[in-house]
Write a structure and sequence with these properties.
about 160 residues, 3 helices
């Protein structure tokens, strides 16, 4: 039986993929007490990596869609860390987002809203969080967005 968060995701037409495997020498997440630290999730969808540079080859709307994919991957990692039960998530605490953009581009917060809006839509008040949204001159594999997260789990 699907839990509260999985039911809401289904209503939104979102099925969480298997948690992406690390691309280098690190673990996908680390739990300390009731806090789960999830490694950066890159913009990767069913058709592969979403690549591009905001302010050059991508629009804010395309960047926000890429950030939403990061949010989906973050939740997939949380679900995996919680033994498949996403309802063990108490809340999203903080996101740190990196946007592959030109030095002139200044709309990183609008891009990262793609992830933030998705988390609030999917999780309600539990999805509200603190965050940082910064520019990056390049990201792994040329992706548009990478986002890491800190989550509180239910005890």
């Amino acid at each position: 039986m699907a839990g509260q968060f999985e039911t809401k995701l289904a209503e939104l037409g979102v099925t969480l993929p298997d948690a992406p495997a690390p691309a280098a020498n690190y673990v996908p997440s680390v739990q300390v007490g009731d806090t789960l630290y999830v490694s950066g999730q890159i913009s990767n969808g069913p058709d592969g990596f979403v690549t591009g540079v905001l302010g050059d080859t991508m629009s804010v709307e395309e960047g926000a869609a890429a950030a939403r994919l990061c949010g989906i991957s973050l939740l997939a990692q949380v679900k995996a860390a919680c033994g498949g039960d996403l309802d063990k998530l108490a809340r999203v605490v903080k996101l740190t987002a990196f946007v592959n953009s030109t030095k002139e581009f200044g709309e990183q917060p609008a891009v990262v809203n793609g992830c933030s809006d998705f988390l609030v839509e999917a999780l309600g008040d539990a999805g509200r969080h603190a965050r940082s949204a910064v520019s990056a001159g390049a990201l792994p594999f040329g992706v548009a967005v990478e986002i890491e997260g800190i989550f509180q789990l239910k005890s």
